[in-house]
Write the structure tokens for this entry.
Amino acid sequence: MRMTRRAFVQAAAAPMLVAPQQAPPPLVELTIAHLVGRIRAAVGPWREKTIDGFKAGDPSVALSGVAVTVAARLENLRRAASAGCNLVITQEPVFYGANDEPANRASDAVYLAKKAYIDQAKLVVWRFSDHWSTRQPDPRVVAIADALGWKDGPGNDNIYRVPETSLSSLMALVSKRLGLRGGMRTVGPPDLRVRTVLVSPGTTDLASTVARLKGADVVLAGEPREWEVVPYVLDAREAGAAKALISVGRIVSEEPGMRACAAWIRTLAPGLRVEALPVSDPFWNAAS
Amino acid sequence: MTAREIVTRIQQQLASQKINWRAETVDTFKAGDPETPIAGIATTGMATFGVLKRAAKAKRNFVITHEPTFYNHQDQTTALAQDPTYEAKQRFIKENQLVVWRFHDHAHALRPDPLVAGSARALGWTAYASTTEPRIYNVPPTTLGALAADIARRLKGRGIRVAGDPAMKVARVALGPGYGVPPLTATFDVAVGGEASESGGNSEYLADAAASGQPKGVILLGHMLSEDFGMFEVGEWLRGFLPDVPVEWIPAGEPFS
């Protein structure tokens, strides 16, 4: 998919958002590989071992626009194509496995349909997870705090001081601002007093939770394992500590961060079409 | 009988069922002194602090747990050494002369897998088990919404999460306990299990299948609502060859309020 002459002129004429000492974007056609090169240069040292990289398509083609999403689901690939974006940047896998290997789904109709769509729409899928989520401060944490209106944090420990509230009021705020349906689950009493919140999106691991929850009343978690952080908080309560956990799910916890990622990519290529494609809470509650 | 003697009896029983003891396994003593004389056994999905308190009160000082005691699969405690929650739990175990032993790998090796059978029984699905396909249950035709509501009612679950169109038709269900939620395929409608990562996997497959016109469903019971019931089955199995030791099921229960 080639960039139209009009889009190209618009891109070239767009106001500069980067620092003045930086060179303006070159007045040649920007390929997908060029943009990804800029992202890699801006994000810091590239790791030798990483899940980040191209997962589908030909990156040497001209870039028409970028769609940024937490999960490159078929629905979002279609939205990207109809918005005129031929590069899809995704945090989570596009082909079902942690390493984007379809494994025993390789001959499955759902996988084949997705692969065929990517080929037919001439999309390129690039995964951006490891490098994005290890920036400091963690952009996923800052984006959640922004969505919740928290300013006092995160410090080195991803803890925010928040206006004093109760666990139930915090749940209502999180539910509303992060757009939860049935994905929220909580350990702790509704009237627990909350002044400090540890924000821990994605896989909420045990080691950092054990180390940091001493300094926070609540851990706002993405995907805590139910044999790790969940029973740890349960046991902490049983041992007499006034702690709580709110789990919102992995996708919901990473969603604000990928919107921030779209905004960051806009600063790297002023004038380029950059769309943030949302993924909503996939869950509803069985009892309601 | 000491805890160690009971474990030896369990190993002998497994051998008689053609299940050899594995060289590498997480099924080991996790806390307490294995030489402690045992007044009774508690079986549970997870030896949470709450379960330990109930076991001590009921004088079931040997706790047989399916999942870890100290918050990680290998029950490594180095990083927890100074942690007040860990210290309080260890102190309680010592003061109450409890012994905690994990029964995970070899429990799943039993046939039928008691963790699957226990969930099926709790869900009322035992009669629906496919005779040819492991973990497949042919339930009376229903919808995802009705199936989920029935499950929530039977298990009294507050935090059971469902993905998929509530109106989709359901007849074939795959059941996998714990973290072993069956991967969705074209061959069944709904996967039911404990917990799963939303990174790719079923979460992505379900969305892509729906977008290409093949509705699928996932019902996540939560880890304990999917394995506590299996440890009831394990308790029944223990009774069969340990007639002199009281065995009680002390479920960890759903952690979420």
